[in-house]
Amino acid sequence: MTGTRHVSGFLRRPDGPKNRKHSQCITAWLPRTAALGIAVLAGVAIVGSTGANPPQPTEEIVFRSERAGQPDVYLIGRDGSNFRRLTFTEARERTPRISPDGNWVAFSSNAAGNYDIWVVRRDGSDLTRVSANPEFEDNPVWLPDGRIVFLRGPFGCEATCTTAVVVKRGGGQGATVPIGGIQSSTLDVTPDGTRILFGRNGTLYSAKLDGTAEAQVTSPSAGAFDFRPSYSPDGARIVFLRSPDGVDNELATANVDGSGFVQLTSTPGRHEEYPSWSKDGDAILFMTFGNEDSRLRQITPDGSGETLVSTDIKAPFLDTFSRNGRDSSIWHEILFGTGSSIEQVDGHVEVSFAASATQGGPFDVIEGHFGSQCSLPGDFDMQVEYDAVAWPSANGTQASLDAFFANASVGRESQVWAEQYTTWLDGRGGWATTEENSGALRLVRSSGQFRGYWRYQDVWVPLRSNVANTNSVVFGFSLRSFNSQFAHQPVKATFDNFRLNSGAVECPEWWRNAAFGDFG
To answer: Which of 33, 306, 454, 512 has an alpha carbon 20 to 30 Å from 167's alpha carbon atom?
Structure first.
């Protein structure tokens, strides 16, 4: 016998922000001109880890999001694959841009107390401070030779109170570009790095990097304001923002000499921001806010075909837990009862029960679990590896892979009657005795059936199947004890390599709405 199974649920996600209405996220299309430093295994994105450079999506988006509680930098494929978080600081990051060789991302951060320019490898390693100046530094743009042009001066300046500075990726004070004062948030360079595009008093200008051959590009009407320009991949056109009335921002394009002006949007009450061209020039990405709308969108260069851009997690997905500290943009954690602890450390998630642990909480259990911030409304296939590190015989606990809210789990259990693999599938159980203290667990909902599996020598062994409910699933894993079965001996289990092999992921609006901002 296995006893009654109880799969816990919860009513809220503790990491969900109270109010994200005015949060911002910085984004950019990432051209892929070199092998990328995002490790994958069999085509599955590895989150928070480093590794080799296998084939990747031909184009990605770099963006800033507050979905982890503070603004951090993320990557995601244009097709929604290979979601990756790059920064894990308590600071505020903004305006990320990708290097021409595809290996680095530059951004502005106040990690050192003041907003400076920083860089990080696209696998999240080698986080480096590039500039150190008491003035606000922002809006980095890469030159083809790997140097970075950025703005230095007061934040929010709309006149001529900032300067453009060039610095090497390795750092230094940098050299001022001799073009005089310019406005903040308005800087780009041609794809070949020969000219700089900037704003002055609401009008766009261009010049050579040595300050010569300055030319006026746009001619806004009285009261209008042009800013945030971005060159097309071939350098022939620009996209920029025009505020015709000082209230709303609209997208517009023009040739590099200002001719061929086209207004792409007309959306009173909704602001467009931070436009950026896709690698092949077939789309323009931008953020929107206003009217309770804070999302990423794309539009064709002729102004048609506007669509939302998803930054949700997409299967296949893998988290190797290779860094210390939980990624709260993906996982929340919950502890029930007393004497339990959970920690992401040393390349895995570690859950421990003290000998004195007692049951408690809304489900009267001892439990520590990671659960997803997003959910699976339909079919899914997921798995996780476990290791029963401290596992005395008949300890009364279960290390399991869980479909929270669907009353389904599969786990490794230790009870007075058996050491066993066990599954509970919404009212129907199954088990198989075992002497293994490490292995892998798998849970599937497909074709109206739940199925639980354990892995034996690279073969998935079925434990049980049952008719599946259609409840939306929060996925995760846990160590738990219930029904007063805990033997009051110290227990520890670790989890690693969580894989979502298939399943359509839906993320909450606060998580999505945090993902908007600047493109580069």
So the answer is: 33
